[in-house]
Amino acid sequence: MLVAAGVKVWFSENDLALGVPMMRAIDKGLANSRIGLVLVTPELLASLPREGVADKELAVLLMRNQLVPIVHNTTYDALLNVSPMLASRSGLSTAEDSMAVVAAKIAELVAT
């Protein structure tokens, strides 16, 4: 939906070529990004305490103050229990807005 709205999107699962060092590619993607979106799902909440790749990406985005959380199939209260810093950011929730509305709001944000 974001690409259809004209937003340039870098997503490691789609843009990481075979044989490319994953961490370096993610590092370059983060360095070249103006805004980082974090889709907060129950799976992400379970993975953050293990301090894997998602935790490292989150740390960079929090440090650079360019993070928009999007809560999906969970709540901000659940997020608060795992990552108070991420939960402190204003974001979006798919329980309140459809994915189409979320995508439109993000497209508007990056256009400014």
Automatic annotation (TrEMBL):
Residues 2-74 form the TIR domain. Pfam families: TIR_2 (PF13676). InterPro entries: TIR_dom, Toll_tir_struct_dom_sf. Gene3D superfamilies: Toll/interleukin-1 receptor homology (TIR) domain (3.40.50.10140). This is TIR domain-containing protein. SUPFAM superfamilies: Toll/Interleukin receptor TIR domain. It comes from Duganella violaceipulchra. It comes from the Bacteria.
